[in-house]
Amino acid sequence: MLKMIKLGGSLITDKRVEQSFRADVMSRIAREIATALPSLTESLIIGHGSGSFGHFAAKRHDTINGVQTAEQWRGFAEVGLVAAELNMLVAGQLWRAGVPIFHFQSSAALTSKDGIPHHMPLDNLRKALENDLIPLVYGDVGFDTVRGGTIISTESLFTYLAESLDVSEIFLVGEVPGVLDDSGTVIPLITPNTINQAQSAITGSRGTDVTGGMLTKVSDMLALVQSRPNMTIHILDGLTEGVLQDTLMGKPTLKTTIRAS
After folding, report:
1. Domains of the chain, each with CATH number or no CATH
2. Taking the model in full, what pTM does it have?
């Protein structure tokens, strides 16, 4: 069984300022994961968004909608480069905290079909897990059989991995304590039966984001739990110290949980 942690781009970067890495936030998050690791009985995969690194470049080149011309391919390469730069910053903080991460660049292996991950060999990722390493994946560019090239968000990559591996829980860690209702109160539980009540309160993310905001995130995760009913997904706050650590260790925290029922 596996748990997966996604660190939002809005958490580890300031998405309103290009290439602004929140080193202090990432350092604390890394320490929280390291502290919780000994208590985990399941293997772990960590992923992160591209935030103000990938999204600004992707918006300039409109990469998500397709890559065909020579200029667009150069833009595609630029987006991949800055996404990888952020990944190395994140990897460094995790490694220094004692988290045994192993970097996986999805664009080197993944093929998508009209924006949806279609094929990615997972033998090496499984081998890393078998040897107690923690795969570190991230939002990246991807070669696409319809669009030529596109953007593969961390959520869509997580969905692909969750459909291929035995995942029990996903933790989506951002800069808000969960999905908020109209009064700013955290909605504790969202299921396919309650999404219509919550939908009016779900808005897009702040800053530049070419892969969608909270509505896209919740919609994608609802689809995932419907296809994997035994899976539980949590949306929680990474800006408040200790929330991620306590949640990983099974302690009660303020968050939104998404389940099939």
Report:
1. 2-258 (3.40.1160.10)
2. 0.92
